[in-house]
Specification:
By secondary structure, the chain is of the alpha/beta class. The chain has a domain at 60-188 and 217-298: 2-enoyl-CoA Hydratase, Chain A, domain 1 (Alpha-Beta Complex).
């Protein structure tokens, strides 16, 4: 018999098993539920942590501590909502002092001043607020450890001014530092074509000259002189001493506390606990029974939407002016994006509860085109018949002034830096630089001017003339609008332009502004213009909700402290304006003024 072999085994096929989607879906669902729970807990904790203002007992003293910057506005960081502590803007300090003035239970203010980086216009506004507080038969006691002119200018308003035995008072006068990079750029093979209108518009001078022009020196010297004079006058008035004595103090320089006391610049030499004892004695009590209330517990900033149908909107325009929607620059600093600003103005126009508007400007300017877009939106708001007032902060120059002239009435402080009605355009030529480092650049183009703003080659004479002509046209339009806003003929107004910077005092004399006064003065004037006796103030932009802040945290610019310190301010401003990719006429402060 034939023996049959067993059949061969079936082929071994590796069948792919179907992966179950149940487990991943379950994990995703659980993760999503947990995430919602965490966010919910965060929101609840944040709401519970939201501080509530406390009521002051009788004969209380409000303790206000000032240090660092006093920002007009800072774009909120993405996770700021979680801290439960709301930021203080400059307006909030003014509102805080006004609330204390009207509170019969607040007897005085104890003001501790530490090193500040605030401008003199802000210091002037705070001085006026404190003087208004004092006029209500209340006292201001000031304490500090190390002061320069800025801190002392504010401190001098106090009824009693104290420093510690080891304190230093540095009154060595005022200075403005301006750096010039032309020789360094020439060494590197970089040239800068500049079209500036006119001789005082010196923004680009740092890149095209090795030193100051006569016009640059003239305007800066005049500005420093006026700030010096205002400082001497105000301090002498507050301290009730001769102006010559204050002038001598600025000449003599650094004082120790005892010498400052002997010179009548301060009222005593005491440590902080001794100052508190002096305050208690003033109120006929002792330190143990002294009611000192911290300012951030007494006043909780409201950057949301106040109730009531009679509102005065305060629109905060702080930073370099640029096109777009951004409110932060490349280095984390505040910017005024034209689209962002227009959206804010339109929100105001559409709200029937808003009866008057104050535009608070603290800006050195920036993009001329963006400034013009925002100016137009303010003119539309004015056409609606809503009272519109500009309030200038430390700086409202060039593009900042462009915004202000969109308002029928302009307020500023004597030390506000303003004007600079002029424009400048820049074009970088790096042909020699690339030649020096042996980089061969070849360009293909469909038209003769396609590479007009390409930095790899110099401009032709014809191109340079066209560049100059376009900038001149923008200057002409700028001055025409400024003259019209000031109700002056072009030929009468134009000599006040030329890109020249003015102090607030000079601006008032020349008709560039209407009134001297701070933000609160502007708010009261706007309310009166609208016929309001009772009203609430609403800040724009308002607070963002949690989701908007969370989104911002993913995209907001990070400020590198090293770059921030090393890179010149003018260079950072050029980065924010993106001049290399978006060449345009700039309505920007002619030089970065840092008065010390």
């Amino acid at each position: 018999m034939e023996e049959r072999l067993p059949p061969p085994p079936p082929p071994n096929r590796d069948r792919k098993k179907k992966k179950s989607v149940v487990l991943p879906l379950l994990l995703f669902f659980v993760t999503f539920i947990l995430l919602l729970g965490v966010i919910g807990i965060i929101l609840v904790v944040s709401a519970l942590r939201s501080p509530k203002a406390i009521s002051a007992p009788r004969n209380s003293v409000l303790r206000i501590q000032l240090s660092g910057e006093l920002p007009e506005y800072v774009p909120p960081s993405g996770l700021a909502v979680l801290t439960g502590k709301k930021p203080f803007f400059f307006y909030d300090y003014l509102a805080l002092i006004e609330k204390a003035k009207n509170d019969p239970k607040i007897a005085g203010i104890y003001l501790e001043i530490y090193p500040l980086s605030a401008g003199y216009a802000q210091m002037s506004e705070l001085r006026h607020a404190l003087q208004d507080f004092q006029a209500a038969d209340k006292f201001v006691t000031v304490y500090g450890e190390m002061w320069s002119e800025s801190e002392y200018y504010l401190a001098s308003v106090g009824d009693d001014v104290f420093m510690t035995p080891e304190s230093m008072l540095m009154l060595d006068g005022f200075m403005s530092r301006i750096s010039f990079y032309q020789e360094a750029l020439a060494w590197a093979g970089i040239k800068v074509d500049v079209a500036a209108f006119k001789e005082y518009k010196s923004f680009a001078d740092s890149y095209r000259y090795a030193e100051m022009t006569d016009a640059h020196r003239e305007s800066t010297t005049a500005l420093l002189s006026e700030i010096n004079q205002n400082f001497i006058k105000d301090v002498a008035s507050s301290r009730e001493i001769a102006e010559e004595k204050v002038s001598d103090a600025l000449t003599n320089g650094t004082y120790d506390a005892e010498t400052a006391f002997t010179a009548g610049l301060i009222d005593g030499v005491q440590y902080r606990d001794q100052v508190e004892a002096s305050i208690a004695k003033k109120l006929n009590t002792d330190v143990k029974n002294l009611h000192l209330i911290e300012f951030y517990r007494y006043f909780i900033p409201n950057h949301g939407q106040p109730g009531g149908t009679n509102q005065v909107a305060v629109l905060l325009a702080n930073g370099t002016i640029n096109s777009g929607t951004a409110d932060r620059g490349a280095f984390g600093d505040s910017v005024v994006g034209s689209d962002w600003f227009v959206d804010q103005v339109r929100s105001i126009r559409e709200d029937d509860r808003i009866k008057a508007v104050v535009v608070r400007i603290d800006s050195p300017g920036g993009s001329g085109l963006a400034s013009d877009v925002m100016w137009r939106e303010l003119k539309n708001l004015e056409a609606d018949g809503i009272p519109l007032v500009a309030s200038m902060g430390n700086v409202a120059a060039s593009g900042g002034y462009y915004l202000a002239m969109g308002c029928p009435t302009i307020f500023c402080e004597p030390m506000t830096i303003t004007g600079s009605i002029g424009v400048v355009a820049m074009r970088i030529d790096m042909a020699d630089f690339y030649n020096n480092i042996k980089v061969n650049v070849q360009v293909l183009k469909t038209g003769p001017n396609a590479d007009f703003f390409d930095p790899y080659r110099p401009l032709t004479d014809e191109e340079r003339n066209a560049f100059l002509q376009r900038t001149g046209q923008f200057y002409q339009a700028f001055v025409e609008k400024a003259a019209e806003s000031r109700n002056k003929a072009f030929d009468d107004f134009e000599p006040l332009a030329h890109g020249r910077v003015w102090s607030g005092s000079a601006a008032l004399q020349n008709g560039l502004v209407d009134r001297q006064g701070g933000l609160m003065d502007a708010v009261r004037f706007a309310a009166q213009s609208a016929g309001l006796s009772r009203y609430s103030v609403r800040l724009f932009p308002g607070e963002k909700d949690f989701w908007a802040l969370l989104q911002d945290s993913q995209v907001e610019a990070k400020n590198d402290p090293v770059i921030d310190q090393v890179l010149p301010p003018l260079a950072k401003r050029l980065v924010d304006l993106n001049v290399a990719k978006q060449p345009q006429p700039l309505a920007v402060l002619p030089f970065d003024i840092e008065i010390q």
